[in-house]
Amino acid sequence: MANEAYDYDVLVIGAGPGGYVAAIRAAQLGLKTACAEGRETLGGTCLNVGCIPSKAMLHASEYYEAAAGGAMEKMGIKVKPQLDLDTMHGQRKDAVKGLTGGIEFLFKKNKIDWLKGYAQFTSNDTVDVAGKAVRAKNIIIATGSSVTPLPGVEVDNAKGIIVDSTGALELAKVPAHMVVIGGGVIGLELGSVWRRLGAKVTCVEFLDQILPGMDGDVRKEANKIFKKQGIEFKLKTKVTSAEVKGKKAVLTLEPAAGGDAETLEADVVLVSIGRRPNTDGLALDKAGLELNKRGQIETDHDFRTAVDGIWAIGDVVPGPMLAHKAEDEGIACAENIAGQTGIVNHDVIPSVVYTWPEIAGVGLTEEAAKEKGEVKVGKFPMLANSRAKTNHEPDGFVKVIADAKTDRVLGVWCIASVAGTMIAQAAQAMEFGATSEDIAYTCHAHPTHSEAIKEAAMAVTGKPIHI
Ligand SMILES: Cc1cc2nc3c(=O)[nH]c(=O)nc-3n(C[C@H](O)[C@H](O)[C@H](O)COP(=O)(O)OP(=O)(O)OC[C@H]3O[C@@H](n4cnc5c(N)ncnc54)[C@H](O)[C@@H]3O)c2cc1C
């Protein structure tokens, strides 16, 4: 497709999981490709300050708690762990360095030019990157998202008292009391890290339950499990201000429905109320593009924006803000640019909370499924799963939601130690249009946590074996 008038066939703006994957696929398909990234390393939010460093801290803190909290002793292993936070942070940084360096290697291997700097549109097919005009036949906007600020609460990661997720990954010491504003995925994951390492954690959530968007049963059960672990929840409560006073923060809380205010003192406050698309500084008006009411760039099913030759993917477009969704959109978008048929099935995007136990779901919640028609639901407790029971992991359940008439699986939800791994089979089954019977009659290895998915599928028609 090389065209003399253009510097590139494809220019990707942003090297997060959406952008870097789109760039690699475009190059694999023979397109002359560049990727503009303003950050010093490739990999975007996910690799630098998101999925990867948070999982590095979750993994390490899980081991620490298993040793410190008595879980190991139950299995006959007596240890007295000592926390070396610097080393824990060190392995987090190593993970990030290794993986971001890996993307740089893949760019070189695929002959993708990394244009270092922030890109700004000067017309519908040209951007300025670090003072240089770059013209491309196709431009993919993959600029991702950043933390949504909370009015009245000023984040200062350097000070380390009122922080966002990036600051919360890097705390130099374990806070005595951490207040997490927002009971979503990021708040619960990072709150869990510091609770495991010894902090008292209070989570303030505006809504009446944590984990908005997830299945109702899952939200309730997760709340119970986290409470048992020691996280205190203040639901239906809003934070109206947080002020730094000396080495502490003082928060003002009010009931969401209105009422008397109370104050709460914290050593660290984590603001995690959501993320918003990155579009500032792109000069989208020069390209002729507009944002929707939520500040996102709208696309059609092929990831084309309203302007010919400009495409958009990942957190900057509507849909769940997840790395794997961004990656799949990146692949599909590049394939569409190359004249192939790139498709993402947005009805089957799994989501995972990497706490202990993990929480995962794919497809519709029971509430959403019921709004669409009659459903049959099968549930199986992890307590009755031989592997979970043997491993001392009794918390959680699997729930399969199927269409009452066709038996087609509409959604699967799990709370289990390895729910994030288990959910992949549910996603694959749903992608192939499986019925609950298909899952129930698929042979699952024993003893595995995944057998709980089979049993929950059996429960849809009322015939699980182990309960
Ligand atoms: C703490 C945390 C934990 C998370 N954990 C998970 C998880 O476990 N699983 C999961 O699926 N998701 C997770 N996420 C969400 C995930 O990181 C995002 O959904 C994902 O990174 C989105 O990918 P993206 O490519 O759209 O954008 P991003 O990863 O945000 O990348 C966009 C890139 O574009 C660059 N950029 C922006 N504007 C410009 C410009 N004008 N010019 C050049 N470059 C620009 C930015 O510097 C950035 O590097 C987590 C997020 C956070 C914050």
UniProtKB/TrEMBL annotation:
It is an enzyme of class 1 (oxidoreductase). Keywords: Disulfide bond, FAD, Flavoprotein, NAD, Nucleotide-binding, Oxidoreductase, Redox-active center. Signal peptide: none annotated. GO terms for molecular function: dihydrolipoyl dehydrogenase (NADH) activity; flavin adenine dinucleotide binding. Pfam families: Pyr_redox_2, Pyr_redox_dim. Residues 8-330 form the FAD/NAD(P)-binding domain. Disulfide bonds join C46-C51. It comes from the Bacteria. Its cofactor is FAD. Residues 349-457 form the Pyridine nucleotide-disulphide oxidoreductase dimerisation domain. GO terms for cellular component: cytoplasm; transferase complex. InterPro entries: Class-I_Pyr_Nuc-Dis_Oxidored, FAD/NAD-bd_sf, FAD/NAD-binding_dom, FAD/NAD-linked_Rdtase_dimer_sf, Lipoamide_DH, Pyr_nuc-diS_OxRdtase, Pyr_nucl-diS_OxRdtase_dimer, Pyr_OxRdtase_I_AS. Its EC number is 1.8.1.4. The keyword Nucleotide-binding applies. NAD(+) binds at G182, G183, G184, V185, I186, G187, L188, E189, E205, G274. GO terms for biological process: 2-oxoglutarate metabolic process; cellular respiration. It catalyses: N(6)-[(R)-dihydrolipoyl]-L-lysyl-[protein] + NAD(+) = N(6)-[(R)-lipoyl]-L-lysyl-[protein] + NADH + H(+). FAD binds at K55, T143, G144, S145, D315, M321, L322, A323, H324. Binds 1 FAD per subunit. The active site is at H446. Belongs to the class-I pyridine nucleotide-disulfide oxidoreductase family. PANTHER family: DIHYDROLIPOYL DEHYDROGENASE, MITOCHONDRIAL, DISULFIDE OXIDOREDUCTASE. The active site is a redox-active disulfide bond. This is Dihydrolipoyl dehydrogenase.
